[in-house]
Amino acid sequence: MYSVIVEHIYKNYAKVKALDDITFSVEKGELFGFIGPDGAGKTTLFRILTTLLIPDKGRAVVNGLDVVKDYREIRQDIGYMPGRFSLYSDLSVEENLDFYATVFGTSVKENYDLIKDIYIQIEPFKKRKAGKLSGGMKQKLALCCALIHKPSVLVLDEPTTGVDAVSRLEFWEMLKRLKQSGITIVVATPYMDEAGLCDRVALIQDGKIMVISTPSEVINTYPRKLFSVKSNDIFSLLNDMRQFPASHTVYAFGQSAHISLKDRDIDGDAIGAYLRGKGHKNLQISTIQATIEDCFMELMNK
């Protein structure tokens, strides 16, 4: 059974194609991730799913309801957390939560069990104005407000952007617990490392979905030999490897370079000999397994 069905959705802004023939489905109780950089089309798609935008063409259905014809019913049955903090900054934590509960005709007490694990982390600050909270606390409050009416589908647009690493990890642990309660979660993120936390992912770029699969299947289909390379000068290393005839993709990955090759017969010794000839020292070269980010770069080059 599917909670979300999207068929051939298009959306343009003047001459810009925000969404270009988007088709996918999300199973009930699934944690489905959209992975892609800023400008890929994630926010536009989520605004359509939450009935805030009308597609130019195509069809989207949430829990059997059409996002255009049945927008009133959908708004009562979904939770939406936009990318930008959108709560009332001049209201306190508890005032925001009470307000959103009232809008949906419920109360914090009635649905407290659903938000308890999240709310206990911000409860010590319940009298503090929302605008004075830290980034991580703001996101937890926003999630509580999105959940307070017991939605069956939760749509989260880049919920961890700008949040510290610890808060990011805590946030995803919360999502796992919510999934176990039967809520369908559709989440967008620009962080490739968060892809592995989803049941399935869609890699999206320039309004097009490049692939939809489980994170492990995406990684296992990576077709090339891949190396991690370090030297005493990473900037020169990147420039020199882009001139290496056998290089397919070359990009920085933390303190190293990830390099994929066109020819599987070329090994690390050939790379080392080439770089030493360019004057590089303290070389560290190793064969590695691809990450989601490597797969994304490979698909972009196609």
Notable features of this structure?
alpha/beta, 28% strand, Alpha-Beta Plaits, 2 domains, 4-stranded antiparallel β-sheet, Rossmann fold, 10 helices
Task: Walk me through this protein's architecture.
The chain folds into 2 domains: 2-214, Rossmann fold (3-Layer(aba) Sandwich); 222-301, Alpha-Beta Plaits (2-Layer Sandwich), CATH 3.30.70.100. Helices cover 33% and strands 28% of the residues. Helix 3 packs parallel to helix 5. The protein has helices spanning 42-49, 71-77, 93-103, 112-122, 135-147, 165-180, 215-220, 234-242, 268-277, 292-301; strands spanning 2-13, 16-27, 31-35, 57-62, 65-66, 78-81, 153-157, 184-189, 200-205, 208-213, 226-230, 247-253, 256-261, 284-287. The protein has 10 helices and 14 strands. It is globular and about 70 Å long. The strands form 3 sheets. It has a 6-stranded mixed beta sheet, with helices on both faces. Strands 2-1-4-5 form a 4-stranded antiparallel beta sheet, covered by helices on one side. The protein is an alpha/beta fold and 302 residues long.
